[in-house]
Design a protein that fits this description.
heterodimer, A: two-stranded antiparallel sheet, B: flat
Chain lengths: ~500, ~140
């Protein structure tokens, strides 16, 4: 209990409160813009957080994260152009609602359900974390290695895209992570003669290149329709009593689904929102309404993806295993400050952990409060033509990257990853597993080394220890499943 | 076609990392050296490249947009080259103008106004606000 009080006192400190507000505001604004999702938003603001203290940095980035998710939903409902993959589902019923003149109700349902989902997710975080921590404290390097490997393989195979390609992305990300000086032996790896690479590649550069620049190259040619036709007044947001009942009920169900799914690495918010939509449709008394403006189709998935987003912080903060690209970036922000997320972090620095949890709730509350009056603003933001937007984003990203170490080489790296990301898009490779692999690479290697040292070279001991054994077998099972899927697709169809 | 390119993409990086790792000092398997992980990853990438080839045919690649690619590349290159030669404001203006070439519908007037406005705004945010050591216009400090 006192941890929660400690948390609130930290979160309500004026500096942190301001950062929370800023994060949510910026996040929503960026998330509303077409073509920029939560990942790009968080990675753009990552260099800014280097100057902040770790609590404020974490609060700011998290605020941007769920703010951007909400902004993406707004774009989904109003323009049928989801800003984030998890808001794609919201468009299915949200946009028809908008077309029926009930955009206000849809938006209110989205923000209300997000709040409910977030709150429930936070409660689960509070209850669940001590359990996870107790378990994680018993972990040795072999277990950490196994969990990370399992998380990476799950992220590669469960999420979107062909599993084999996902695995290739994880391997590539891990490989990029080896660039630089090996801390254990002092050997320089893959510097290709460039001095600037001795410290490795900065996470922000990879993130902004892979997600931001490549997105812009892809989006410019599509030239999205940027005119928003819906006039949303405050009055139009008033829901009927029936709406309220249906929204709350589906939001609660969605939160349940989201909390369960959110812990899975890789799948997380997108899977949660799809599952919730499917569930709502199956269990509804009027399934034909779905796709034509059923409020449950908006509220359920929104609650689910917020709950999943919150719950996904549990493995990220308590064990240092990020479940998604965005969380990987947020985690790297912590690591830059020298804080290694893990069970010890919570024991040694409780004010950061509980402060962040409290600020999650405050952030969700701010989202609810802010977005009701600010809807008109977001609608106007949506009206900005893309051709003004994207050169600005390119310049901002370039400058942001340059600002990290005042090194022009970083800009060339940005370009490399931007082109790489674009090539990956064309070839249907998913970028998220690459980023997660990149962030986890040093720790994966480190834990593997330590484990082998402890085992004195006996690789089989990985499987003898129960936890690491089970996780590694599950990881191998996932790989086998991936191979079986592609084999079946190739030979089974004929 | 997409598969062949995907496999080539994967095998290229696999070979790159594998060959690079072989030049690093290797110790025995009981003692993990700096080369172990990269060698493993390189090998895995090469194997996965073969797996990709064995997958069912995916069809053609999405046609790349050469114009946006060239324009954005030029924009970033221009920014990088101009930043230390001319300063922040010329860099932004150049970058915006080249980037605008990506969109066939952009007009010169809008672009120039955007370039000027954005460069001043960025000078305000980065030069003054965040106090980054970057000259607004080289020569003027």
């Amino acid at each position: 209990m006192e941890s929660i009080l400690l948390g609130f006192s930290t979160a309500l400190a004026p500096g942190n409160l301001l950062h929370c507000f800023l994060g949510v505001l910026l996040g929503t604004a960026i998330g509303v813009l077409p073509g920029i999702g939560a990942v790009a938003a968080v990675s753009m603001l990552l260099p800014v957080t280097y100057y902040l203290d770790p609590t404020a940095a974490l609060i700011l980035l998290s605020g941007v994260y769920y703010g951007a998710e909400y902004g993406g939903s707004t774009a989904s409902i109003l323009m049928n152009m989801p800003g984030t993959p998890s808001s794609a589902v919201t468009a299915l019923d949200g946009h028809p609602l908008a077309k029926q003149g009930r955009a206000g109700v849809a938006l209110l349902a989205a923000v209300g359900a997000s709040f409910i989902g977030g709150s429930i997710g936070i409660i689960i975080m509070i209850i669940g974390s001590p359990l996870v921590i107790a378990m994680a404290l018993a972990f040795g390097p072999a277990e950490y290695f196994a969990v990370m490997l399992f998380g990476l393989i799950a992220a590669a195979t469960i999420a979107q895209g062909a599993p084999v390609k996902g695995l290739a992305m994880v391997a590539l990300g891990l490989a990029f992570g080896t660039i630089g000086i090996d801390l254990n032996t002092g050997v320089i790896r893959y510097d290709v003669g460039v001095y600037a690479l001795y410290d490795g590649i900065n996470t922000a550069i990879i993130a902004m290149g892979l997600f931001g620049i490549s997105e812009i190259i892809a989006a410019v040619r599509e030239n999205p329709q940027s005119i928003s036709r819906f006039h949303v007044t405050l009055r139009s947001m008033l829901p009927t009593r029936d709406d309220l009942k249906r929204t709350t009920a589906s939001a609660l169900r969605g939160s349940g689904i989201g909390s369960l799914v959110g812990v899975l690495p890789g799948a997380g918010t997108t899977l949660a929102s799809f599952l919730s939509y499917a569930f709502e449709k199956r269990t509804s008394r009027a399934p034909d309404q779905f796709g034509r403006g059923a409020v449950e189709g908006v509220a359920g998935p929104e609650a689910a993806n917020n709950a999943a987003a919150q719950v996904a912080f549990i493995p990220t903060l308590t064990m240092g295993i990020p479940g998604s690209a965005t969380l990987a970036i947020i985690m790297s922000a912590l690591m830059i400050h020298g804080i290694q997320p893990g069970p010890r972090m919570i024991a040694e620095m409780p004010e950061i952990y509980w402060g962040v949890i409290a600020s999650f709730w405050i952030g969700n509350l701010l989202l609810l409060v802010l977005n009701i009056p600010l809807i008109g603003l977001w609608v106007r933001v949506l009206a900005v033509p893309y051709k003004l937007l994207y050169p600005s984003i390119v310049c901002l990203v370039c400058m942001g990257v340059y600002g990290i170490s005042n090194n022009i080489f970083d800009i060339w790296l940005l370009l490399f990853f931007g082109l790489l990301g674009y090539a990956m898009r064309l070839l249907a490779f998913e970028p998220a597993p690459l980023l997660i692999g990149f962030v986890l690479s040093p720790m994966l290697e480190e834990n593997f080394r330590r484990a082998i040292l402890l085992f004195r070279g006996d690789y089989l001991l990985f499987f003898v220890r129960p936890v690491s054994g089970i996780l590694l077998i599950m990881a191998i099972a996932l790989i086998a499943y991936a191979i079986w899927c592609s084999a079946r697709a190739r030979y089974g169809a004929s | 076609m997409r598969q062949i390119f995907s496999a080539l993409f994967t095998v290229f990086f696999g070979v790159f990392f594998l060959v690079g790792a072989l030049q690093l000092p290797i110790k025995s398997a009981g003692h993990i050296g700096p080369a172990h992980l990269p060698i493993a990853l390189g090998a895995i990438l090469i194997v996965l490249a073969l797996c990709i080839l064995l997958q069912p045919d995916e069809g053609d690649t999405i046609a790349p947009g050469w114009r946006p690619t060239a324009a954005i590349t030029g924009s970033i290159v221009g920014f990088g080259l101009m930043l230390e030669v001319g300063g922040l404001i010329p860099a932004v203006i150049l970058s915006v103008c080249v980037a605008a070439l990506a969109d066939a519908n952009s007009r010169a007037s809008t672009t120039i106004v955007l370039g000027l406005g954005l460069s001043l705004a960025m000078w305000g945010i980065f030069g003054i606000g965040l106090n980054l050591p970057v000259p607004a216009i080289k020569g003027l400090g």
